[in-house]
Amino acid sequence: MTMAGNLRKVTGLGRVGGLRRVARLARRLPRVDLNHHARSPLGSSVVNCVTYEDGARVPECSDLFSAVERVRKKGEGFVWLGLHEPTDTEFAGIAELFDLHPLAVEDAVEAHQRPKVERYGETLFAVFKTVCYVEHEKLTATSEVVDTGEIMVFLGEDFVITVRHGRHGSLGPLREGLEAAPHQLAKGPAAVLHAIADHVVDDYLNVTDAVQGDIDQVEADVFAENGARADPGRIYQMKRELLELKRAVVPLGRPMEELTTRPIRVIAPEIQAYFRDVLDHLMRAKEQIAAFDELLNSILQAHLAQVTVAQNEDMRKITAWAAVIAVPTMVCGVYGMNFDHMPELHWRFGYPLVIGVISVACLVLYRGFRRNGWL
Q1: pTM across the whole model
Q2: What is the bridge-based pairing of β-strands 46-53 and 116-120?
Q3: Which residues of the chain have a pLDDT value below 50?
Q4: What SS3 state is found at 53?
Q5: Residue/partner pairs of 117-124 with CB below 8 Å, 24 or more apart
Q6: pLDDT at 3
Q7: Which helix (H) or strand (E) holds 89?
Q8: pLDDT tens-digit map of 122-148
Q9: In this structure, are strands 78-84 and 46-53 parallel, antiparallel, or unpaired?
């Protein structure tokens, strides 16, 4: 059996019934240019729809239904459909056209999913958490450091559907980079999945490098001369933002191992070798995040220790001054009892003598406390 015949058998559209289903959907929705999202019959969520053959873009196939029909008739090439935060209504026709599983469709529309890779028949469904470093002039207790989003990928023998959620993570530059390397794009939809995974993990590394700068600044402030007065809220804020980054990076480890080791029909073994490099970068990001978490714990403990030491120093100073003040208080208290028969009450040099004794006693105490580091 030829390769085209095998592909038609897998997709189920090499038969007349499959092509009739495509034609039926095509009649149901008007044929317009999906490259222009404002005119898309599927809604403004459609970012782009492109057909690729032998790694090259086919400019004349801009209509989704004709593109799918062309690809499945020829048995070569694939369609890449990009969406941004689609609704149930906008995604319904696409799900029916590509025979997507309802559970995967629900996850793609609702978002807020953990990173994962699932197989539904001949379709692979992957979820990636995207991260972005939020620039800020100064780190405060309320600063946003990490912003997250999601990219869902439906992968079949002849199609790639990317669903993006969030304000960042645009795949436009990624698409242009792949089109500039047709030899890689000619390897099929699996090459697109690898490029997306590599792009997402590279962003992890970029964000961890940027976060390290904030942690270094917090560390420098804590160990500065007045580090005990540093705002501990910044440390807690960094830990919260680091937890957000950790939730995006750490759960992706197992799905990436599956893409690297487990045999998957829609991913050729030669593409799996590329995923091993992505997994290596992911492990590096995980190690950096774990190190940051431990470092922040150490910084927080050091800050609490500095606060305790500063409080102890303040208490020693207060105690020393209280002891110095206690001497004149005691002497003045004795001579303030107004007894008739007290020595030195009617002595001419009694007052200067008492003042001198108080001054000498206070000076001795003050020098003793200064010598011991209490003042």
Answers
A1: 0.74
A2: unpaired
A3: 1-43
A4: strand
A5: 117/255, 117/258, 117/259, 119/264, 122/10, 122/11, 122/156, 122/157, 122/265, 122/266, 123/98, 123/99, 123/154, 123/155, 123/156, 123/266, 124/153, 124/154, 124/155, 124/156, 124/193, 124/264, 124/266, 124/267
A6: 33
A7: helix 88-97
A8: 899 999 999 999 988 888 878 888 999
A9: antiparallel
